[in-house]
């Protein structure tokens, strides 16, 4: 199977898993009752941003897998797998278990993993890393947002 097909399927599965966790929760009384930081984007931004970012992940990692030597390909596959598990995992921890505090270290790990993914993809071609860098920026922002939600909602 072509690497781009594999990364597209893996990313789509991650998006689906995250969607299952968030589908009803973003409009729940629990989520609505949380105090939110002033810098939190409006709700419609999240699905738009994630659609673009999931596409970005699938394309850049798929292209990088075609360019990298075998040993780096194996490492990129592992890094992508870890990243996608953290990605979907955050949704399940935050929305599925409604545990804001536990979501903070998951978000931080996702941000670090995303930066590592950018670095690895950039080894194949610098422009692939540049193209994936919005994902690292977004997940870093999401980690700050998670930490802010915890600070504003200490009982959660």
TrEMBL record:
One of its GO terms (cellular component) is membrane. The chain crosses the membrane at residues 47-66, 130-149. One of its GO terms (biological process) is tetrapyrrole metabolic process. It is a multi-pass membrane protein. InterPro entries: TspO/MBR-related_sf, TspO_MBR. It is found in: Membrane. The keyword Transmembrane applies. Pfam families: TspO_MBR (PF03073). Keywords: Membrane, Transmembrane, Transmembrane helix. The keyword rRNA processing does not apply. Belongs to the TspO/BZRP family. This is TspO and MBR s.
């Amino acid at each position: 199977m072509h690497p781009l097909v594999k990364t597209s399927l893996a990313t789509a599965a991650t998006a689906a898993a995250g969607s299952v966790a968030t589908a009803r929760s973003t409009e729940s009384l629990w989520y609505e009752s949380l105090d939110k930081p002033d810098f939190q984007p409006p709700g419609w931004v999240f699905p738009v941003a994630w659609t673009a970012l999931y596409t970005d992940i699938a394309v850049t990692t798929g292209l990088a897998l075609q360019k990298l030597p075998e040993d780096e390909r194996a490492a990129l596959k592992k890094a992508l797998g870890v990243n996608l598990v953290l990605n979907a995992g955050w949704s399940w921890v935050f929305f599925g278990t409604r545990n804001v505090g536990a979501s903070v270290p998951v978000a931080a790990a996702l941000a670090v993993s995303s930066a590592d993914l950018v670095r690895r993809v950039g080894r194949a071609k610098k422009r692939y890393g540049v193209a994936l860098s919005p994902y690292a920026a977004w997940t870093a922002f999401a980690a700050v947002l998670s930490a802010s939600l915890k600070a504003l909602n200490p009982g959660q």
